[in-house]
Amino acid sequence: MDNSRHQNAEAEEKTLNFIEQIIEEEIAAGKNGGRVYTRFPPEPNGYLHIGHATSICLNFGLAAKYNGKCNLRFDDTNPSKEDVEYIDAIQADIQWLGFQWEGKALYASDYFRQLYDWAEKMIIEGKAYVDDQPAEVISAQRMSPTEPGVESPFRSRSAEENLDLFRRMRNGEFKEGSRVLRAKIDMASPNMLMRDAIMYRIMYTPHHRTGNQWCIYPMYDFTHGQSDYLEGITHSVCTMEFEVHRPLYNWFLDQLIDTEYRPRQIEFARRNVSHTVMSKRKLLELVQKKYVSGWDDPRMPTISGLRRRGYTPESIRMFAEKVGVARREIVVDIALLEHCIREHLNLTAQRVMAVLDPVKVVISNYPKGQTEFVQIENNPEDPDAGMRNVAFSGELYIEREDFMEDAPKKFFRLTPGGEVRLKGAYIIKCTGVEKDRAGSIQTIYCTYDPDSKSGSGHEASNRKVKGTLHWVSASDTIDAEVRIYDRLFKDEDPDGHKDADFKEFINEDSLKTIKGCKLESGLKTAKPGDRFQFQRLGYFCVDKDSTEGNLVFNRTVALKDTWAKMQNEK
RNA sequence: UGUCCCAUUGUGUAAUGGCAGCACAGCAGAUUUUGGUUCUGUUAGUCUAGGUUCGAAUCCUGGUGGGACAACCA
Per CA to C1' distance, which residue is closest to B73? Predict the structure, then answer.
């Protein structure tokens, strides 16, 4: 029984996704000499997000699995949308995720010369022509997917004239938008992209790498397959929206390449995540309209946002692995991402005492002015994490919500006359409270049982204490600011609305800042990027906004809290 | 009224003509110095109608539903 279950688990791990199946079949058939070479080809026009992260994991993961290589290639053929800022950010994000591309980062713009020569070759062979019509006319002539298009009157120009015009395009003799180079394919094709796709357009925008060297730029379709070919890519993995481009991808290679080797385009489905947006256009809008603080706002699904929030590379890789690969539109529940980060942080994050909403506890029978140190495990999941000393005294802070005067039966924490254990220290009993005029509790009075110290051997003392509370000694705390992020969007998914104005979808409570939190003094030395588990409250990461005297924490994710859930259900 | 892609529990993903499995979420219980973690159990699925077959989630046909394509974007 156990044995068979174990075997099933192993079998499951070995399950191949459909891309791996394709690759293994090709390897078995001896294609490309068994070589596997992939690439990740972002356009540098925005920051990478969790969707790119899964694509990165796929491409680099395939290369790693089959002892191959993976390139990073910037698809920088449209200077009007691109910027070096993004190039740096993209490289940093990929490396942070734990991947390293083969050699130096590559650029489609590296191939501008080669692509130009190929374009001339096609012109000479009568496979491409210069069209003098404006964009609207060309677009109208393509007609609709349900009816054949109309051929351009310039379609039958001589090769000599086309070559002359194309060279003059390159030399800057024509106005932007006045002429394009088109492939001569089939204006009646049911695939709109095959209706004489545009290969080159005139653009006087300086390019972030080639400057003013070129004033004509190749289109995606005339660039991508050939770039793959030049780099020796075997598997060009992209998202489903490029599926209709595949015939064009192959068509261009067929015109230009006479080797047996061809890169192969394989499409898989974009992996959307619930409660967020993934389109670059919309993310840019969130940044520009200042709905968020920037690309790395911890509520953003960008890699930099997730990083700042406290997500680990391991958790994102685990997410990509668990989501899998398919060929249909999907929306992954964000709960899976949250599961992955909890799983990793549970194993690695140091536990720490932190009180977000402090209320004072005075232990009346504890010797006045005395402080002792109690030993507490740094991480019960990790035996190597060791112990630390935490100051304990007669004046403490506990979480305000951990005390209730009229508590329901299922409340396990402190109540008048009730007992709880203070984590790592003693059992205390509540003897009374002091309130201000408004009736809000100022101080909780308790007595402690000196025989109940953790690890003393007398802990049990013949009684069972249901609750355990976190605390900090009033004599030994540091103050901190804690930022709690909820989902940026309400339940309704703005990604589903083509022209959504985000205002109506944004959850106004998505960011809550709590000041005056009390932390154990050991956190003095915490640095931006350090991650902790605040007992019962969740996982937190030190933010870059922290200063010497004021630590700022972002809550990465809350712990599961069944008590809170019970409360919500009422 | 075109071409192409897709349809397995709430979500994601396996099963490649032979026992519908796994994960997340949910529910119940055990353990627990934090109502967490860990462990155990459990609810729930092949879009639909035909066909082929000893046998269909899988192959075929029709239907339904979802998606992509009509940028000088990628």
Answer: A78
- Per-residue pLDDT at A568: 81
Instruction: Provide the token pair at A265.
Output: 């385009």
**How far is residue A128's CA from residue A165's CA, in Å, rounded to a whole number?**
12
Is the pLDDT higher at A498 or at A247?
A247
Please provide residue A309's backbone torsions phi and psi, each rounded to the nearest 5 degrees: -70, -20
Question: Which entry of A31, A35, A81, A270 is annotated as an active-site residue?
Answer: A270
What is the CA A496 to C1' B67 distance in angstroms? 13
All residues at 6 or more sequence positions from A408 whose CB lies less than 8 Å from its CB, including other chains: none
Tokens of A74: 């910037």
In the prediction, which pLDDT does A506 show? 87
pLDDT in tens, A186-241: 999 999 999 999 999 999 999 999 999 999 999 999 999 999 999 999 999 999 99
- Rounded CA-CA distance A147/A190 in Å is 8
- Contact (Cβ atoms closer than 8 angstroms) between residue A469 and residue A534: no
Q: Distance, angstroms, CA A221 to C1' B73?
A: 11
The span from the CA of A10 to the CA of A26, in Å, is: 24
Could you tell me if A375 and A520 are in contact, meaning their C-beta atoms sit under 8 angstroms apart? Answer: no
Of A214, A237, A211, the C-alpha closest to A224 is A237
**Largest separation between any pair of C-alpha atoms in chain A:** 102
Query: Which bases of strand B have any atom within 7 Å of the beta carbon of a protein residue?
Result: 1-8, 10-16, 21-27, 33-38, 66-74
Q: Is A522 exposed, middle or buried (0-12, 13-18, 19+ CB in 10 A)?
A: middle
Question: Which tens digits make up the pLDDT trace of A345-403?
Answer: 999 999 999 999 999 999 999 999 999 999 999 999 998 999 999 999 999 999 999 99
The ipTM value here is 0.96
Residue A508: pLDDT over 90: no
The two structure tokens encoding residue A269: 């489905």
Smallest CA–C1' separation from A180: which nucleotide? B72
**pTM to 2 decimal places:** 0.94
The per-residue pLDDT for A457 is 65
